[in-house]
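User:
Care to share a sequence and structure tokens?

Assistant:
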Amino acid sequence: MSEFDSSAKTISNPPDPARIMDGLRDTGYDFNTAVSDIIDNSIAADASEIYVRVEADPNMNVTVTISDNGIGMDYDGLKNAMKYGSDKRPDAKSLGKFGLGLKTASTAFCKKLSVVSRPAAGAETLKVCWDLDFISRRNDWSLLVPEVTEDDLELLDQAAKGASGTVVIWENIDRLFSRSYSTQAYARKVFNKIISGLRDHIELVYQRFLDRRFEDVQNVRIWLNDEEVRPFDPFCTDEDKTALLQDGVLDIEGTNVSLVVKAYLLPRKDEFSTKEAAARSRLGNDTQGFYVYRENRLIYFGNWMGMFKNEPHFSLLRVEVSFDHLADDYLNVDIKKSRIIFNQSIYDTLQNEFLPAPRRQAEQRYRQGTIAAVNKTGKTPHDAANKTIESKAPHAESSKTTILDESSNQVRVDNKNGSVVTRIKIRGSEDGAMRVIPVESIEYNALWNPVIADGKHAVELNMSHPYYQKVYYPLLGRPTSITGLDALFWSLAEAELGSFTQDSKEFFEDMRLGTSRNLSKLIADLPDPDISDEDPEA
């Protein structure tokens, strides 16, 4: 292709204003992300106080206002702020990045966007407005300059208190509710849920700005409908049981740019200092994974970015990834500042080197919680099976065992194939569990293991095995189901005793271990039990 010819003829070909504005309403903002984009602008304007109001009149017509005590703007500043593709901010660290957020975030939900601003104490308060219906009628880039009302001044001075500041006002909101509701009472219920979700979002996304412990971060106070928003720490660092598993710096290959990466292991719900702290932790399948911060503002969280599936037994692991503006171009930060893409080098390092050990520890802590929950049920879950098997065992046993040396687990087994001297674990019964004995682990993570308990043929069940946790545990309140499962594994253990020979004993052991491994794979996609419940599912 030839180089650009600067002498070539040109023609002006401006875009259609109405179609551009209407098209940019569909850039993919959700409500929380859109409000956050406006808050970003307030923080970029050095605000220390930000008031967010989301109000609905009796007819459920909603208005949103965000006011701050930032540096404010004169007319030139307001015109630039309302321009699609506004001038680049002088501070590259700014949370406002592309010069589109104010407009696209606002009109994603409203058809009338006004900005009221005062550049300094005593200066004139100014107002400009994009009205999409007006633009549609005129079909040109006509920025309205309405009169500043008393309501505008009241909103501004809630934050500015007579000094500099700005208010962003969303009116004619037509995209907040996903559908029409049959009653206003139900619409109000949905509206209240939206407010609650917005509060959760703000306290998480701006935690470092709200939390005075972050001394190197610009501190702000944010109010939502006159109630101050408190910071939410997703890593629960105030809890004694929270552990920092990994802490490192990853360089972006071929650059001088780095990412700070930290892996936190959270307590199980039963390990938190209080029930309130456990509830506030937001533990769950959708809150594990990466928490990505750009210039201390959370921009992405809640999954493993395609590296792994969200699974309950990793719900205790949250991984911080922090970077500054220098990494923007290498991580493909999007217009909403809600998505990034790791380059292949960083992706591979995180997946294959940084995360395997923390994921193992997270799974282990989760599994321990399930074991503790199982143990809390005591001997009751297997009582019915023990009684049933004990009554039937004399007629079901196909072998006879004689203990030769208890200290070395040496036993003689007489079965249909002859007599074999071998080693079988010899133990006492647990709490009267004569035939089926749940234990915390079995060597090589086998699911079951034949044992001799108080001289009787018994079977141990591995509570750490995924099959026990995903299949057994949810059924522990159902004696009939548990009896059926217990009878199956006791029968498998008894069949092994009744069939093996000196030459085939190793084959039976391999079959038991192979079956245990296959069961782990086959039930991998089954949901894990909710170990937060005090009792198993009935």
